[in-house]
């Protein structure tokens, strides 16, 4: 039902190959001689740890980056793809890792303007009718006339995928399409796509960190490690252990420390009657009360957009509450730098590149944000000396295994997982009394996930009070001592982990 | 003069008349700025464009005898200034605000330089349309003698409001203004769209300048503009980047500008200079009242360097 469909010349699934694809950024070889083959009408998974070069490879295919060497073959013939427009003309579409919808435009406006030749004057009555007819053929819906900025993350992701289907692309590249979806939503989306590949309408190249989805929906896999193609094959012939071994080689995954039991630990962090508004001035946190003891992880579960980010912003001092108070060890706590240092409050907010880092400053500078005004980095007259700063950065980069070309690289050039590690290194290197973490494992590969969860557990075992906000229920059930559920800006459900089960938490998450 | 005394009603009427008269340059500059900002760039140089437009419009009107040719010339010179701004901002590591300030000084300086010979001579003015024929009151008649540019401005505001929603170009401009990566991913050249938007925005500002020198106050002098070009930037923020609201805000600023003279016309001369400062006070007041540290500006294009 797409505007571009040509009934007399049906376009079928496309076959795509890359030949010796190489991409060099300055001194860093991000991709080296990668040749992959995606058979028509299959769902092909691309695996690899953070920074392996997966996004770089697909951006080279799309013409978003110009490869240093190598070429793309479409249906066996070499194709020149200099810009994303050329890729679109070949029927190749991509859903990027970071959203490319225009926030102030409605879903309908986003869809119409993404067409190759939108009409000069848009007849909205006709377009909306066409869009509704198109949506009727899809198993999931998104509201058409609301600005995209008001949609939830899951709805945005679905809209991105719908957009590519609406454009009638025949080869779809999806860069971690399910990271913001709940498992149910992911099944819905992948089920639809799988059906289309089986019908021979579509070929899909999907980047994912989730073995469950790869095993259930993909036909073939290719694994990248440090910019090289390391292996691959048919999904049915590879076990999860084979795939993870290809991804990380012989690197040992850290064992999770056992949960230490404490008795009678005092309350460390108390949130009392907290109210706060979001950017639009609409109440987002409505009377949250919560006490967190030392040596305890309290996990706040909830569907995204129920006030969790606003709560985290208040706790990390990014937003003024309209009402309510925070206490640490019974004393009044204002989330400002001095008091955070005094009470040893640290945090890993969601989207750390945006919320906890200055993208264009170097890795060393970003790592020094907590300590640059103290000796040894700051001297007596307030001058900073770069040597101790670099040394500190080098030490932390080594012990937290941050992959970066040097301490002087702008942090925005690191892959998502490595930004997360760098920030974590900064926040956890000292003594921690209160730790506030939000979606710490968003978009990370399994090795990093395991690493970061171990770090959080270690802090708990050392006696820190940990508040963990996560959209990933499994993460909460794995880490938390107590589970709370946030919905509609309120906390409804607080249970010790032993009494919490998936079903009742799920009920509370949907607001019942 | 045989003025009918209408007492205190004179003040609101004079303010209405003033609003209509004074608002036109505000309206044109703010529509130009609105267009530029919607594409994701701020052009602070429009003050310079306005002054240069006033000079060139007056000069061409004087030299050709046709005020409408003057308006066209003002618009074209505005395009030129917009294009320079748009071009320089395409270069890497350039800040649009700094370039805007440079262009503002450049435009006014150039206008003073070329405008010297045109300070004395009388150029033909733009005509006005009398819409007050139904009334016997001369005050009403003079209030409703309207310049065609005012009407053009209204049509333009409505057109822009419609076009931002209903045309391909409108959507492309909003897209580049709100998310450059999205525009790039769809294969549009962000720089090129912004260049065009700044150029056309410059045209509007130039026309606003021609109104100043060819209608009200109606002569070219170096003190002609009293910062309308800069206030228009505040006005666009106040109007939340909505062309229709730009029209309302322009009327409001116009009325505030007419307050001093209006009070004087009914014999209140005390605080004349204070009331003349009304538009500036209004700017300040609006900026304070309409922003809040707790909320983000609704409707602000996401790519603007002030909101980013
Ligand atoms: N624009 C850039 N400039 C310099 N280096 C870059 C740039 N983009 C990526 N890199 C580097 O290239 C390498 C591969 O990055 P890429 O984003 O492709 O990783 P990825 O496999 O997609 O990882 P993730 O799973 O975290 O998304 C990383 O080391 C990264 O730091
Ligand atoms: Mg990636």
TrEMBL record, chain A:
* SMART domains, alphabetized: AAA
Q: What superkingdom does the record give? A: Bacteria
Has UniProt tagged this entry with the keyword Nucleotide-binding? yes
Where exactly are the transmembrane stretches of this chain? none
Coiled-coil annotated spans: none
Family annotation (Pfam families): ABC_tran
Database matches in CDD domains: ABC_Carb_Monos_I, ABC_Carb_Monos_II
What InterPro entries does the record tag this protein with? AAA+_ATPase, ABC_carbohydrate_import_ATPase, ABC_transporter-like_ATP-bd, ABC_transporter-like_CS, P-loop_NTPase
Record key words, sorted: ATP-binding, Nucleotide-binding, Sugar transport, Transport
In Gene Ontology terms, what is one molecular function of this protein? ATP binding
Q: What PROSITE patterns has UniProt attached to this entry?
A: ABC_TRANSPORTER_1, ABC_TRANSPORTER_2
The ABC transporter domain, residue ranges: 14-251, 269-511
Tell me the Gene3D superfamilies matching this sequence: P-loop containing nucleotide triphosphate hydrolases
Q: Does the keyword Nucleotide-binding apply?
A: yes
What PANTHER family does the database record attribute to this sequence? CARBOHYDRATE TRANSPORT ATP-BINDING PROTEIN MG119-RELATED (PTHR43790), GUANOSINE IMPORT ATP-BINDING PROTEIN NUPO (PTHR43790:SF4)
Similarity annotation = Belongs to the ABC transporter superfamily.
Q: What is this protein called?
A: Simple sugar transport system ATP-binding protein
Automatic annotation (TrEMBL), chain B:
In the UniProt record, the signal sequence range is none
The UniProt keywords, alphabetically, are: Cell membrane, Membrane, Sugar transport, Transmembrane, Transmembrane helix, Transport
Q: Does the keyword Cytoplasm apply?
A: no
Quote the subcellular location field of this record: Cell membrane
Q: Which domain of life is it from?
A: Bacteria
Electron transport recorded as keyword: no
The UniProt entry lists membrane topology as: Multi-pass membrane protein
* Matching InterPro entries: ABC_transp_permease
Residues annotated as transmembrane: 6-32, 68-88, 97-119, 139-164, 195-217, 229-253, 273-291
Instruction: Please identify the protein, giving its name as recorded.
Output: Simple sugar transport system permease protein
What species is given as this protein's source?
A: Kaistia dalseonensis
Taxonomy, top ranks, is: Bacteria, Pseudomonadati, Pseudomonadota, Alphaproteobacteria, Hyphomicrobiales
């Amino acid at each position: 039902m797409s505007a571009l469909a040509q009934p007399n010349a049906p376009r079928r699934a496309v076959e795509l190959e890359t030949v010796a694809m190489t991409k060099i950024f300055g001194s860093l070889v991000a991709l080296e001689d990668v040749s992959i083959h995606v058979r028509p009408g299959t769902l092909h998974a691309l695996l690899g740890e953070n920074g392996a070069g997966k996004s770089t490879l697909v951006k080279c295919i799309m013409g978003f980056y110009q490869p240093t060497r190598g070429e793309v073959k479409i249906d066996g013939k070499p194709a020149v793809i200099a810009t994303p427009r050329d890729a679109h003309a070949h029927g190749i579409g991509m859903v990027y890792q970071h959203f490319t919808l225009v926030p102030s435009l409605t879903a309908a406006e986003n869809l119409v303007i993404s067409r190759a030749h939108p009409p000069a004057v848009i007849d909205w009555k006709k377009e909306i009718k066409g869009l509704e007819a198109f949506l009727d053929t899809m198993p999931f819906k998104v509201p058409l006339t609301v600005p995209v900025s008001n949609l939830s993350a899951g709805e945005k992701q679905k809209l991105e995928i719908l957009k590519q289907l609406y454009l009638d692309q025949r080869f779809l590249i999806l860069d971690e399409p399910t990271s913001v979806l709940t498992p149910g939503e992911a099944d819905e989306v992948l089920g639809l796509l799988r059906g289309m590949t089986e019908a021979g309408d579509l070929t899909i190249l999907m980047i994912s960190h989730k073995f469950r989805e790869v095993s259930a929906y993909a036909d073939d896999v290719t694994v990248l490690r440090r910019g090289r193609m390391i292996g691959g094959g048919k999904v049915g012939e590879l076990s999860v252990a084979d795939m993870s071994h290809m991804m990380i080689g012989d690197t040992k995954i850290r064992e999770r420390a056992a949960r230490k039991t404490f008795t009678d630990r005092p309350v460390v962090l108390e949130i009392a009657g907290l109210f706060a508004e979001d950017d639009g001035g609409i109440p987002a946190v409505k009377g949250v009360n919560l006490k967190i003891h030392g040596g305890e992880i309290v996990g706040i579960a909830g569907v995204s957009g129920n006030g969790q980010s606003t709560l985290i912003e208040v706790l990390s001092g990014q937003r003024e509450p309209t009402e309510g108070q925070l206490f640490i060890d019974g004393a009044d706590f204002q989330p400002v730098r001095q008091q955070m240092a005094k009470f040893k409050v640290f945090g890993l907010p969601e989207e750390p590149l945006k919320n906890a880092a200055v993208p264009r400053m170097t890795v060393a500078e970003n790592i020094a944000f907590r300590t640059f005004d103290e000796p040894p980095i700051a001297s007596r007259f307030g001058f900073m000396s770069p040597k101790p700063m670099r040394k500190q950065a080098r030490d932390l980069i080594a012990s937290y295994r941050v992959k970066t070309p040097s301490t002087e690289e702008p942090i925005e050039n690191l892959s998502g997982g490595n930004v997360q590690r760098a920030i974590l290194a900064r926040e956890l290197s000292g003594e921690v009394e209160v730790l506030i973490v939000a979606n710490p494992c968003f978009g990370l590969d399994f090795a990093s996930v395991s690493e970061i969860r171990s770090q959080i557990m270690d802090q708990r075992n050392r006696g820190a009070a940990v508040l963990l906000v996560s959209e990933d229920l499994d993460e909460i059930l794995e880490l938390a001592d107590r589970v709370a559920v946030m919905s509609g800006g309120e906390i409804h459900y607080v249970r010790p982990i032993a009494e919490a089960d998936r079903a009742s938490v799920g009920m509370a998450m949907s607001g019942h | 003069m045989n003025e009918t005394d209408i007492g205190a009603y004179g003040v609101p009427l004079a303010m209405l008349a003033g609003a209509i008269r004074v608002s036109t340059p505000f309206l044109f500059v703010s529509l130009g700025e609105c267009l530029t900002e919607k594409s994701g760039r701020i052009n602070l140089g429009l003050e310079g464009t306005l002054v240069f437009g006033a000079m060139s419009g007056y000069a061409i009107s004087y030299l050709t005898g046709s005020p409408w040719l003057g308006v066209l010339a003002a618009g074209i010179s505005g395009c030129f200034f917009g294009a320079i701004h748009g071009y320089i901002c395409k270069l890497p590591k350039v800040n649009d605000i700094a370039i805007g300030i440079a262009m503002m000084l450049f435009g006014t300086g150039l206008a003073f330089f070329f405008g010297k010979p045109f300070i004395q001579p009388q150029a033909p003015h733009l005509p006005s349309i009398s819409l007050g024929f139904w009334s016997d009151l001369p005050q009403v008649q003079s209030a409703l003698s309207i310049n065609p540019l005012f009407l053009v401005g209204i049509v333009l505001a409505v057109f822009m409001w419609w076009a931002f929603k209903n045309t391909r170009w409108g959507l492309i401009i909003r897209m580049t203004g709100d998310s450059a990566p999205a525009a790039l991913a769809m294969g549009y050249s962000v720089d090129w769209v912004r260049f065009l938007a700044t150029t056309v925005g410059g045209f509007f500002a130039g026309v606003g300048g021609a109104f100043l020198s060819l209608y009200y106050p109606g002569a070219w002098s170096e003190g002609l503009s009293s910062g309308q070009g800069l206030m228009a930037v505040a006005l666009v923020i106040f109007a939340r980047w909505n062309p229709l609201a730009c029209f309302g805000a322009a009327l409001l600023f116009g009325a505030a500008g007419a307050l001093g003279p209006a009070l004087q016309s009914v014999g209140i001369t005390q605080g004349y200079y204070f009331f003349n400062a009304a538009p500036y006070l209004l700017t300040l007041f609006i900026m304070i009242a309409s922003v809040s540290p707790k909320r983000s500006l609704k409707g602000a294009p996401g790519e603007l360097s002030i909101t980013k």
